Amino acid sequence: MVLSITVLGIETSCDETAAAVLRLDGGRVHLMSDIIHSQLAEHAPYLGVVPEIAARAHAEIADRTVTAAMDAAGLGYGDLDAVAATAGPGLIGGVLVGLMTGKAIAQAAAIPFIPVNHLEGHALSPRLAADCPFPYLLLLVSGGHCPFLEVGGLGQYRRLGSTIDDAVGEAFDKVAKALGLGFPGGPAVERMAASGDPAAYAFPRPLIGRPGLDMSFAGLKSAVARAAETATDEMAKADICASFQAAVCDVLAARSAAALAAFASGDGEKRFVVAGGVAANRTIRAALEAAAAREGARLIAPPARHCTDNAAMIALAGAERLASGLVDPDDGLSAPARPRWPLDTLSASMAPVYGSGRRGAKV
Length: 363
Ligand code: KG4
Ligand code: ZN
Known about the structure:
This protein is an alpha/beta fold and about 375 residues long. The chain has helices at about 40-45, 50-75, 90-110, 120-125, 170-180, 185-195, 220-230, 235-260, 280-295, 305, 310-325, 345-350; strands at about 5-10, 15-25, 30-40, 80-90, 115, 135-140, 150-155, 155-160, 270-275, 295-300. The protein is about 40% helix and about 20% strand. The protein starts with a strand and ends in a 13-residue tail after the last helix.
Protein backbone atom coordinates (compact mmCIF):
# COMPACT_ATOMS: atom_id res chain seq x y z
CA MET A 1 0.00 0.00 0.00
CA VAL A 2 1.44 3.37 -1.07
CA LEU A 3 1.60 5.73 1.92
CA SER A 4 0.84 9.07 0.30
CA ILE A 5 -1.06 9.65 -2.93
CA THR A 6 -1.73 13.09 -4.42
CA VAL A 7 -4.37 13.39 -7.13
CA LEU A 8 -5.78 16.23 -9.21
CA GLY A 9 -9.51 15.74 -9.81
CA ILE A 10 -11.55 17.37 -12.59
CA GLU A 11 -15.36 17.53 -12.85
CA THR A 12 -17.24 18.89 -15.89
CA SER A 13 -20.22 16.57 -16.39
CA CYS A 14 -23.02 19.09 -15.89
CA ASP A 15 -22.96 22.79 -15.05
CA GLU A 16 -20.05 23.04 -12.61
CA THR A 17 -16.46 23.38 -13.80
CA ALA A 18 -14.46 22.06 -10.85
CA ALA A 19 -10.91 21.06 -9.98
CA ALA A 20 -9.47 19.87 -6.68
CA VAL A 21 -6.23 18.49 -5.31
CA LEU A 22 -6.48 15.78 -2.68
CA ARG A 23 -3.85 13.83 -0.76
CA LEU A 24 -4.58 10.40 0.68
CA ASP A 25 -2.08 9.88 3.47
CA GLY A 26 -2.18 6.46 5.10
CA GLY A 27 -5.93 6.38 4.44
CA ARG A 28 -6.50 9.94 5.79
CA VAL A 29 -7.99 12.50 3.41
CA HIS A 30 -6.38 15.95 3.05
CA LEU A 31 -8.26 18.20 0.70
CA MET A 32 -5.59 20.65 -0.45
CA SER A 33 -7.75 22.72 -2.80
CA ASP A 34 -11.33 22.61 -4.00
CA ILE A 35 -12.39 25.04 -6.75
CA ILE A 36 -15.97 25.10 -8.09
CA HIS A 37 -17.12 27.48 -10.83
CA SER A 38 -20.88 27.33 -11.21
CA GLN A 39 -22.43 28.18 -14.58
CA LEU A 40 -25.75 29.22 -13.02
CA ALA A 41 -25.68 32.69 -14.55
CA GLU A 42 -25.20 31.28 -18.07
CA HIS A 43 -28.13 28.84 -17.80
CA ALA A 44 -30.55 30.86 -15.65
CA PRO A 45 -32.23 32.70 -18.59
CA TYR A 46 -33.19 29.29 -20.08
CA LEU A 47 -34.51 27.86 -16.75
CA GLY A 48 -32.34 24.76 -17.18
CA VAL A 49 -28.92 23.53 -18.23
CA VAL A 50 -28.32 24.01 -21.99
CA PRO A 51 -25.77 21.34 -23.03
CA GLU A 52 -24.09 23.43 -25.75
CA ILE A 53 -23.70 26.45 -23.48
CA ALA A 54 -22.34 24.17 -20.74
CA ALA A 55 -19.73 22.62 -23.04
CA ARG A 56 -18.50 26.03 -24.23
CA ALA A 57 -18.38 27.41 -20.70
CA HIS A 58 -16.36 24.38 -19.52
CA ALA A 59 -13.94 24.75 -22.46
CA GLU A 60 -13.43 28.44 -21.66
CA ILE A 61 -12.45 28.00 -18.02
CA ALA A 62 -11.24 24.41 -17.57
CA ASP A 63 -7.52 25.38 -17.84
CA ARG A 64 -7.89 28.31 -15.44
CA THR A 65 -9.82 26.22 -12.94
CA VAL A 66 -7.12 23.53 -12.91
CA THR A 67 -4.37 26.15 -12.54
CA ALA A 68 -6.28 27.76 -9.65
CA ALA A 69 -6.61 24.38 -7.90
CA MET A 70 -2.88 23.62 -8.33
CA ASP A 71 -1.92 27.12 -7.09
CA ALA A 72 -4.23 26.90 -4.09
CA ALA A 73 -2.69 23.53 -3.19
CA GLY A 74 0.79 25.04 -3.62
CA LEU A 75 1.86 22.16 -5.86
CA GLY A 76 3.37 21.68 -9.31
CA TYR A 77 2.33 18.94 -11.75
CA GLY A 78 5.48 17.02 -10.78
CA ASP A 79 4.04 16.60 -7.27
CA LEU A 80 1.00 14.67 -8.54
CA ASP A 81 0.73 10.88 -8.59
CA ALA A 82 -2.28 10.81 -10.93
CA VAL A 83 -4.99 12.87 -12.61
CA ALA A 84 -8.63 11.79 -12.32
CA ALA A 85 -11.52 13.22 -14.34
CA THR A 86 -15.21 12.43 -14.70
CA ALA A 87 -15.62 10.26 -17.81
CA GLY A 88 -19.44 10.02 -17.47
CA PRO A 89 -22.34 9.81 -17.06
CA GLY A 90 -23.26 13.35 -18.01
CA LEU A 91 -23.56 15.84 -20.86
CA ILE A 92 -21.16 14.60 -23.50
CA GLY A 93 -19.69 18.00 -24.50
CA GLY A 94 -18.78 18.87 -20.92
CA VAL A 95 -17.50 15.39 -20.10
CA LEU A 96 -15.19 15.55 -23.14
CA VAL A 97 -13.69 18.86 -21.99
CA GLY A 98 -12.75 17.50 -18.55
CA LEU A 99 -11.61 14.16 -19.92
CA MET A 100 -9.30 15.68 -22.56
CA THR A 101 -7.92 18.23 -20.08
CA GLY A 102 -7.16 15.45 -17.58
CA LYS A 103 -5.60 13.16 -20.17
CA ALA A 104 -3.39 15.96 -21.53
CA ILE A 105 -2.05 16.84 -18.07
CA ALA A 106 -1.48 13.18 -17.17
CA GLN A 107 0.34 12.53 -20.43
CA ALA A 108 2.52 15.66 -20.11
CA ALA A 109 3.39 14.79 -16.50
CA ALA A 110 3.87 11.09 -17.37
CA ILE A 111 1.52 9.94 -14.58
CA PRO A 112 -1.56 7.69 -14.70
CA PHE A 113 -4.92 9.05 -15.86
CA ILE A 114 -7.94 7.66 -14.01
CA PRO A 115 -11.38 7.93 -15.64
CA VAL A 116 -13.98 8.26 -12.87
CA ASN A 117 -17.69 7.46 -12.89
CA HIS A 118 -19.41 10.63 -11.61
CA LEU A 119 -21.83 8.49 -9.58
CA GLU A 120 -18.91 6.76 -7.86
CA GLY A 121 -17.71 10.24 -6.90
CA HIS A 122 -21.07 10.98 -5.24
CA ALA A 123 -21.08 7.48 -3.67
CA LEU A 124 -17.68 8.10 -2.05
CA SER A 125 -18.32 11.78 -1.19
CA PRO A 126 -19.13 11.11 2.53
CA ARG A 127 -15.59 9.72 2.91
CA LEU A 128 -14.16 13.19 2.16
CA ALA A 129 -14.96 14.40 5.66
CA ALA A 130 -16.65 11.79 7.80
CA ASP A 131 -15.59 8.53 9.33
CA CYS A 132 -17.53 6.38 6.88
CA PRO A 133 -16.10 2.89 6.42
CA PHE A 134 -17.57 0.38 3.94
CA PRO A 135 -20.18 -1.04 3.78
CA TYR A 136 -22.99 1.50 3.83
CA LEU A 137 -26.38 2.07 2.31
CA LEU A 138 -26.46 5.06 -0.03
CA LEU A 139 -29.38 7.14 -1.25
CA LEU A 140 -28.08 9.21 -4.13
CA VAL A 141 -30.52 12.04 -4.83
CA SER A 142 -29.45 14.41 -7.59
CA GLY A 143 -30.79 16.10 -10.69
CA GLY A 144 -30.60 13.00 -12.87
CA HIS A 145 -30.36 10.10 -10.46
CA CYS A 146 -32.20 8.60 -7.52
CA PRO A 147 -30.94 5.10 -6.64
CA PHE A 148 -30.57 3.22 -3.37
CA LEU A 149 -27.17 1.56 -3.59
CA GLU A 150 -25.49 -0.90 -1.32
CA VAL A 151 -21.86 0.26 -1.25
CA GLY A 152 -19.87 -2.84 -0.30
CA GLY A 153 -16.44 -1.39 -1.04
CA LEU A 154 -14.60 0.56 -3.70
CA GLY A 155 -16.12 -0.46 -7.05
CA GLN A 156 -18.75 -2.66 -5.35
CA TYR A 157 -22.19 -1.17 -5.87
CA ARG A 158 -25.50 -3.00 -5.89
CA ARG A 159 -28.63 -1.10 -6.82
CA LEU A 160 -31.63 -1.94 -4.63
CA GLY A 161 -34.18 0.41 -6.18
CA SER A 162 -34.53 3.74 -7.94
CA THR A 163 -37.08 6.09 -9.43
CA ILE A 164 -39.19 4.65 -12.20
CA ASP A 165 -39.64 8.08 -13.80
CA ASP A 166 -38.26 11.47 -12.70
CA ALA A 167 -35.31 11.97 -10.36
CA VAL A 168 -36.09 13.97 -7.19
CA GLY A 169 -33.91 16.94 -8.19
CA GLU A 170 -35.66 17.03 -11.56
CA ALA A 171 -39.04 17.19 -9.74
CA PHE A 172 -37.76 20.10 -7.61
CA ASP A 173 -36.58 21.89 -10.76
CA LYS A 174 -39.92 21.36 -12.53
CA VAL A 175 -41.94 22.50 -9.53
CA ALA A 176 -39.82 25.65 -9.37
CA LYS A 177 -40.42 26.23 -13.07
CA ALA A 178 -44.20 25.79 -12.68
CA LEU A 179 -44.19 28.36 -9.87
CA GLY A 180 -41.87 30.77 -11.69
CA LEU A 181 -39.16 30.48 -9.03
CA GLY A 182 -36.26 30.31 -11.47
CA PHE A 183 -33.33 27.94 -11.79
CA PRO A 184 -31.94 25.92 -10.08
CA GLY A 185 -35.19 24.87 -8.51
CA GLY A 186 -34.13 22.93 -5.42
CA PRO A 187 -32.75 25.78 -3.30
CA ALA A 188 -35.56 28.13 -4.46
CA VAL A 189 -38.28 25.62 -3.48
CA GLU A 190 -36.56 24.99 -0.12
CA ARG A 191 -36.39 28.74 0.61
CA MET A 192 -40.05 29.27 -0.35
CA ALA A 193 -41.18 26.19 1.62
CA ALA A 194 -39.74 27.64 4.83
CA SER A 195 -42.67 30.07 5.12
CA GLY A 196 -45.37 27.67 3.86
CA ASP A 197 -47.75 25.16 5.47
CA PRO A 198 -46.70 21.55 4.65
CA ALA A 199 -50.28 20.36 5.28
CA ALA A 200 -51.99 22.93 3.02
CA TYR A 201 -52.14 20.61 -0.01
CA ALA A 202 -52.67 16.83 0.11
CA PHE A 203 -50.27 15.84 -2.67
CA PRO A 204 -49.87 12.14 -3.57
CA ARG A 205 -47.15 9.96 -2.03
CA PRO A 206 -46.57 7.59 -4.98
CA LEU A 207 -45.72 3.93 -4.32
CA ILE A 208 -45.64 4.33 -0.51
CA GLY A 209 -46.74 1.07 1.09
CA ARG A 210 -46.06 -0.96 -2.05
CA PRO A 211 -43.39 -3.69 -1.93
CA GLY A 212 -39.90 -2.98 -3.25
CA LEU A 213 -37.68 0.09 -3.11
CA ASP A 214 -38.58 1.82 -6.34
CA MET A 215 -39.93 5.37 -6.25
CA SER A 216 -41.94 7.61 -8.55
CA PHE A 217 -42.10 11.39 -8.66
CA ALA A 218 -43.76 12.16 -12.02
CA GLY A 219 -47.34 11.99 -10.66
CA LEU A 220 -46.45 14.16 -7.67
CA LYS A 221 -44.80 16.69 -9.98
CA SER A 222 -47.91 16.82 -12.22
CA ALA A 223 -50.22 17.27 -9.21
CA VAL A 224 -48.05 20.15 -8.03
CA ALA A 225 -48.01 21.69 -11.51
CA ARG A 226 -51.84 21.62 -11.58
CA ALA A 227 -52.02 23.28 -8.16
CA ALA A 228 -49.50 25.87 -9.33
CA GLU A 229 -51.92 27.03 -12.08
CA THR A 230 -54.24 28.45 -9.40
CA ALA A 231 -51.52 29.87 -7.14
CA THR A 232 -51.50 33.60 -7.59
CA ASP A 233 -50.00 34.97 -4.39
CA GLU A 234 -46.74 34.28 -2.57
CA MET A 235 -48.54 32.61 0.34
CA ALA A 236 -50.11 29.97 -1.95
CA LYS A 237 -46.75 29.37 -3.65
CA ALA A 238 -45.08 28.89 -0.26
CA ASP A 239 -47.80 26.42 0.77
CA ILE A 240 -47.36 24.45 -2.47
CA CYS A 241 -43.58 24.30 -1.98
CA ALA A 242 -43.93 23.18 1.63
CA SER A 243 -46.57 20.57 0.76
CA PHE A 244 -44.51 19.25 -2.17
CA GLN A 245 -41.39 19.04 -0.01
CA ALA A 246 -43.38 17.22 2.69
CA ALA A 247 -44.56 14.64 0.14
CA VAL A 248 -40.98 14.10 -1.09
CA CYS A 249 -39.81 13.71 2.52
CA ASP A 250 -42.50 11.12 3.24
CA VAL A 251 -41.63 9.07 0.14
CA LEU A 252 -37.87 9.20 0.75
CA ALA A 253 -38.22 8.48 4.48
CA ALA A 254 -40.57 5.50 3.97
CA ARG A 255 -38.38 3.98 1.25
CA SER A 256 -35.21 4.62 3.27
CA ALA A 257 -36.71 2.90 6.30
CA ALA A 258 -37.58 -0.14 4.18
CA ALA A 259 -34.10 -0.16 2.59
CA LEU A 260 -32.44 0.11 6.00
CA ALA A 261 -34.55 -2.69 7.45
CA ALA A 262 -33.26 -4.96 4.67
CA PHE A 263 -29.64 -3.78 4.90
CA ALA A 264 -27.15 -5.67 7.11
CA SER A 265 -23.81 -3.98 7.60
CA GLY A 266 -22.15 -6.94 9.28
CA ASP A 267 -20.16 -4.84 11.78
CA GLY A 268 -22.88 -3.80 14.23
CA GLU A 269 -23.37 -0.28 12.91
CA LYS A 270 -25.76 0.56 10.09
CA ARG A 271 -24.45 3.53 8.12
CA PHE A 272 -26.89 5.38 5.87
CA VAL A 273 -25.44 7.96 3.51
CA VAL A 274 -27.45 10.53 1.62
CA ALA A 275 -25.54 12.31 -1.15
CA GLY A 276 -26.20 14.29 -4.34
CA GLY A 277 -27.55 17.82 -4.82
CA VAL A 278 -30.94 17.19 -3.15
CA ALA A 279 -29.12 16.05 0.02
CA ALA A 280 -28.34 19.74 0.56
CA ASN A 281 -32.03 20.19 1.50
CA ARG A 282 -32.30 20.60 5.29
CA THR A 283 -35.89 19.38 5.61
CA ILE A 284 -35.08 16.23 3.63
CA ARG A 285 -31.96 15.64 5.74
CA ALA A 286 -34.04 15.95 8.92
CA ALA A 287 -36.65 13.48 7.61
CA LEU A 288 -33.93 10.98 6.68
CA GLU A 289 -32.20 11.50 10.02
CA ALA A 290 -35.45 10.57 11.79
CA ALA A 291 -35.99 7.54 9.55
CA ALA A 292 -32.41 6.39 10.18
CA ALA A 293 -32.81 6.80 13.94
CA ARG A 294 -36.00 4.72 13.89
CA GLU A 295 -34.07 1.93 12.12
CA GLY A 296 -31.08 2.18 14.48
CA ALA A 297 -28.85 3.60 11.74
CA ARG A 298 -26.42 6.54 11.64
CA LEU A 299 -27.14 9.11 8.92
CA ILE A 300 -24.06 10.53 7.23
CA ALA A 301 -24.55 13.45 4.85
CA PRO A 302 -21.65 15.33 3.25
CA PRO A 303 -21.58 19.11 3.77
CA ALA A 304 -23.76 20.89 1.18
CA ARG A 305 -20.67 21.90 -0.86
CA HIS A 306 -19.86 18.24 -1.43
CA CYS A 307 -23.48 17.16 -2.02
CA THR A 308 -23.68 19.13 -5.25
CA ASP A 309 -21.18 18.51 -8.05
CA ASN A 310 -17.55 19.03 -7.09
CA ALA A 311 -14.09 17.77 -8.03
CA ALA A 312 -13.01 16.77 -4.51
CA MET A 313 -15.15 13.63 -4.77
CA ILE A 314 -13.64 12.83 -8.20
CA ALA A 315 -10.10 13.27 -6.83
CA LEU A 316 -11.01 11.00 -3.90
CA ALA A 317 -12.40 8.30 -6.22
CA GLY A 318 -9.18 8.53 -8.27
CA ALA A 319 -6.94 8.37 -5.18
CA GLU A 320 -8.84 5.44 -3.68
CA ARG A 321 -8.67 3.61 -7.01
CA LEU A 322 -4.94 4.22 -7.33
CA ALA A 323 -4.33 3.15 -3.71
CA SER A 324 -6.24 -0.10 -4.32
CA GLY A 325 -4.68 -0.81 -7.72
CA LEU A 326 -8.09 -0.45 -9.39
CA VAL A 327 -6.75 1.47 -12.41
CA ASP A 328 -6.67 0.77 -16.14
CA PRO A 329 -3.48 -1.00 -17.23
CA ASP A 330 -3.03 1.47 -20.13
CA ASP A 331 -3.27 4.43 -17.70
CA GLY A 332 -6.78 5.24 -18.83
CA LEU A 333 -5.67 7.31 -21.82
CA SER A 334 -7.96 5.37 -24.14
CA ALA A 335 -11.01 5.73 -21.84
CA PRO A 336 -14.01 7.08 -23.76
CA ALA A 337 -16.46 9.75 -22.62
CA ARG A 338 -19.61 7.90 -21.59
CA PRO A 339 -22.90 9.86 -21.55
CA ARG A 340 -24.44 6.78 -19.90
CA TRP A 341 -22.53 4.71 -17.41
CA PRO A 342 -24.48 2.78 -14.76
CA LEU A 343 -22.56 2.18 -11.52
CA ASP A 344 -24.06 -1.22 -11.01
CA THR A 345 -23.76 -2.65 -14.51
CA LEU A 346 -25.13 -6.05 -13.63
CA SER A 347 -28.45 -5.02 -12.08
CA ALA A 348 -28.84 -2.18 -14.56
CA SER A 349 -28.62 -4.53 -17.54
CA MET A 350 -31.03 -7.01 -15.95
CA ALA A 351 -33.62 -4.43 -14.89
CA PRO A 352 -33.01 -0.96 -16.30
CA VAL A 353 -35.41 1.27 -14.42
CA TYR A 354 -34.61 4.81 -15.35
CA GLY A 355 -34.54 5.52 -19.06
CA SER A 356 -33.17 2.25 -20.43
CA GLY A 357 -32.60 3.86 -23.83
CA ARG A 358 -31.04 2.57 -27.03
CA ARG A 359 -27.50 2.42 -25.67
CA GLY A 360 -28.25 0.92 -22.27
CA ALA A 361 -29.43 2.03 -18.88
CA LYS A 362 -28.64 5.55 -17.74
CA VAL A 363 -28.38 4.88 -14.04
O1 KG4 B 1 -25.77 16.40 -7.70
P1 KG4 B 1 -26.15 17.63 -8.46
O2 KG4 B 1 -25.39 18.91 -8.16
O3 KG4 B 1 -26.03 17.42 -9.99
C1 KG4 B 1 -26.36 16.22 -10.62
O4 KG4 B 1 -25.46 15.35 -10.73
O5 KG4 B 1 -27.56 16.12 -10.99
O6 KG4 B 1 -27.71 17.85 -8.19
C2 KG4 B 1 -28.42 18.94 -8.74
C3 KG4 B 1 -29.87 18.83 -8.32
C4 KG4 B 1 -30.77 19.88 -8.98
O7 KG4 B 1 -31.92 19.24 -9.47
C5 KG4 B 1 -31.09 20.85 -7.84
O8 KG4 B 1 -32.35 21.49 -7.98
C6 KG4 B 1 -31.07 19.91 -6.65
O9 KG4 B 1 -29.99 19.02 -6.90
N1 KG4 B 1 -30.86 20.64 -5.40
C7 KG4 B 1 -31.76 20.69 -4.40
C8 KG4 B 1 -31.22 21.57 -3.42
N2 KG4 B 1 -30.00 21.99 -3.85
C9 KG4 B 1 -29.80 21.42 -5.08
N3 KG4 B 1 -32.97 20.10 -4.25
C10 KG4 B 1 -33.66 20.37 -3.11
N4 KG4 B 1 -33.22 21.20 -2.15
C11 KG4 B 1 -32.02 21.82 -2.25
N5 KG4 B 1 -31.58 22.63 -1.31
ZN1 ZN C 1 -23.84 15.00 -9.64
